[in-house]
Amino acid sequence: MSRLTLPGPRDAAFALAFGVGFGITASWPTIAHAQQMCAADLNGNGDAADPGELARCEPVAQDQYQCPLEKTACTQDVAGDYSCPLGPQYACLPQDGGPACSPHPCADIGTTPIVEEPPVDDPGIPADGPVDAEGNCLGTVEIFSGRGMRCRPAGLGTTLANCCKDKGKIIKDGMGSSINSLGTKIAVAKGVFSGMSAAFTAFRAGATASEAANAGAHALIVGLDPTSIAVSLAINFMIEFLFSGCDQQDMETAMLNGSGMCHEVGSYCTSSFLGICLQKARGYCCFNTKLGRIIQEQGRPQLKSFNGVGWGTPKKPMCRGFTPEEFQALDFSKMDLSEYYADIEARAQTDIQVDMKERVDAYIRAVQP
What we know:
The protein is an alpha+beta fold.
């Protein structure tokens, strides 16, 4: 049985550019080290991440290459001289069928490599900081703090898979029996990724897709609280991404965002060549709960300390939580929490507000006695 060999982002981009398929193969095509490449934003959407926008340059003469993107035949005047109709700055190069020109430069990827931005590196605030002998918090108290994350929409770096795809509410939200029982859902997301890793391992070892999914499901369920995750949706998510070019943070972000726990900050370029973007990413602030995201979105505009700072930048989201003083200054009567009410048990909204306030006040008293 053939095995799946997973390509790296650069190999995947080249394969897409050259029309190489992504089926189950015995090996991945090897790309020559010294290769002349070019890229162009042909559809005007701000990047060259779509099929046909990255190409291998054609050798036309000794040490001369031409980009095939938007290549145009040169015109000849009465004196027999050739000129490029796209502009005199573009050279007419000889080739079969007559001289031609292209507005896009070529570059050797050996000396002009693809520039890759690493994933957002924000582990977030640890859930349990240092305390003294009496149990008083010695660190910085942050309420509803988040973590900067990113996922990548369909592009060359993801083998055209949409790694931000919303697969539904996989991770469940809820107040629990107390404010301290709100375990981080990012840990649950990591558990789902562990299940996917197990599925990949099984598949590469020769298992069928069904057998690989079963192996992933077993790894997924072990060690997870079944009340915190929609297991069937998580398994479907795992199967959906089994053949994709998504990485761990792509998958964590997609799960948290699909579960309503992330605020999108914006998009940025995560991979470029000759200054042209090949792959975009979306930056997010992701929180433990949907409630945390809602209160952050509606509470920040009320506080001067967030004026001019907002959510940071897509590449570096600013996801800090509220200080106790900031949180106590929030006016909850000006917040619309209907999105949260719809997700929890049917109770009177006034009861929920009182319950939430009591829990938060108890939390503040616990960390600031």
